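re: ur question from yesterday

yeah so i grabbed the chain u mentioned. its 464 aa long if i counted rite. heres the sequnce exactly as i have it in my notes:
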Amino acid sequence: MDLCSNQQTAPLSRRAALQAACGFGFLAFSGLANAATSRILLPDDDPFGPKRTHFTPKAKRIIFLCMAGAPSHVDTFDYKPELITKNGTSFGRNAKLMASPWQFRQRGDSGLWISDLFPNLGGLADDLTLLRSMKAAIPAHAAATMHMHTGSFQFVRPSLGAWSFYGLGTMNENLPGFVTINPRNGRPSGYGSSFLPASYQGTPVNIGSGRRAASTQDSVAHIANDRLGGNSQQNQLGLLRRLERERTRREKKDANIESVLEQYELAFRMQAEVPELIDLTKESSKTLEMYGIGEDATDSFGRQCLLARKFAEEGVRFIEINHGGWDTHRNLREELPRQCGAIDRPIAALLTDLKQRKMLDDTLVIWGGEFGRTPYAQNGDGRDHNAGGFTMWMAGGGVKGGFSYGSTDETGHKATDNTMEMHDWHATILHAMGLDHERLTYNYAGRDFRLTDVHGSVHNSIFA
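ran it thru and got these structure tokens back, copy pasting raw so excuse formatting
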């Protein structure tokens, strides 16, 4: 700026353009902009809009039911009569096989073997594909959980949800494409975007249960603005856009600035839509009862499942909900029924609700934890970690219903047939969404990265 002539002699800098709108720091979700500082390479011009898939997708959205702590597959979805025959016999050094304390029954027309721990979900057996040959890379919770979410247990990488949002975009311009409900320990490692643009990170939503159910303000950070009203915020956004148009007229378009503006505009729109969406007080008593909301055992997870359905219905691409407490090294007979009882009815309600709304066919529902548990006992009445073989399941989204895929050995210790490792699992999930895992890449530090690294095969046999 020439102070004598009061004439501008140089184009407005990027920093000055943002600083000119000093009030924009008070917008909802202002913290999002702090992370959007790296160079951004977007699959299309609009970082949030729907993207072109590599081929026709079987599913439009994903709901991932994450069971932190590793559920025991041999007590839930992997029937092993050999454990009954060999109960109490030696297994390796100082270990003895332990039969499941619960009976398994054949469910539905398909005759899938499912434990009595899941009476409600067992009634929907004909909608499930049981993946009974899962294999994890490492039997340690933190590392295996990160591997399940990001494809790496050694390095910080973008999460499955972030990759899905990056490849597909959102179907609702007023909502984020990736939402995580009650993320474990509040850490972003399971829903972060790492080197992907910050706009693809999951938006955490925290809800309680019963009288402790969170208010809208507590559920989503900064969802309300206690300093500026809607008109003032709109004026600020308008000023930012005008400044950016003027800067673009003088210089080339800057994807970095554009991404920050997109995030602020999304945050502004979310203020109007999100509070009503996450308010469950307007749901019918019939719906609340179906999900088990209002009952101590099922209230918390029931709220998550109902909220997941609502987000899915409104166009969110990837929704993760969480339930922990599966680390049963002891007290298996007491703890496992409690955990299963908390999720059985809500999950059955979720699948039924999606079916009634004609949404299950294009919604891929996934259930599972980071690994399984041993067929032998630990501490008398518990089971140890087992990465060698375990069960996850899928429903909807083009997978076969009433189908068992792969198997473990006679005791459930190791996957033996059609083994599905985590990279295969990721590749198969992306395939259901119309994405080729080898082509969904992002160039970072001179290398094209992908969710599956240099591994992964799609298991096409699970699709109808």
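noticed a couple things. The chain is about 30% helix and 15% strand. also The mean pLDDT is 85.
anyway ttyl
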